[in-house]
Amino acid sequence: MLILNLQFFASKKGVGSSKNGRDSHSKRLGVKSHDGEFVLAGNILVRQRGTKIHPGTNVGRGKDDTLFATIDGVVKYERLGKDRKKASVYPTVDLETQEAVS
């Protein structure tokens, strides 16, 4: 009785699909206008996810929690209570206008 033992091998290496290799684009979050910097109304102060920094005086909050200036002025980052921060914008005082008022 003749028994044939045949084994077939792959002629090409099998290449499985990788589950890696994907990445999302960076969202460019963070502080855009720093403390003491002069900003115009509408300028973005902070891009963030959630309210890591809360809106303070003369600062608005967009639907994606972006903080923006509502007036022209100087940015000031301050503490809000014990463990929170807030961003405020204070108007600059010109010497010429101050002398004109007095």
Describe, in plain words, how this protein is organized in 3D.
The structure is a single chain. It is built from one helix and eight strands; from the N terminus they run ββββββββα. With 102 residues, it is mainly beta. Strands 1-3-6-5 form a four-stranded antiparallel β-sheet, with no helix packed on it. A four-stranded mixed β-sheet has the order 2-7-8-4, with no helix packed on it. It has a single domain, classed as OB fold (Dihydrolipoamide Acetyltransferase, E2P) (Beta Barrel), CATH 2.40.50.100.
Shape: rod-shaped
The whole-angstrom Rg is 30 Å
Tally of helical runs? 1
Mean pLDDT: 90
Going across the biggest sheet, name each strand in turn.
Answer: 1-3-6-5
- The figure for the number of domains is 1
Q: Estimate percent helicity.
A: under 10%
In the CATH scheme, what's the topology name? OB fold (Dihydrolipoamide Acetyltransferase, E2P)
Order of helices and strands: EEEEEEEEH
Specify the structural class.
mainly beta
> Which range does the strand content fall in?
25-35%
Q: Could you name the ranges where pLDDT drops below 50 across 5 or more consecutive residues? A: none
Quaternary state of the chains? single chain
CATH class, anyone?
Mainly Beta
Find the CATH superfamily: RNA polymerase II/Efflux pump adaptor protein, barrel-sandwich hybrid domain
CATH architecture: Beta Barrel
Distance separating the two termini:
121 Å
Report the sheet with the most strands, covering strand number, pairing sense and barrel closure.
4 strands, antiparallel
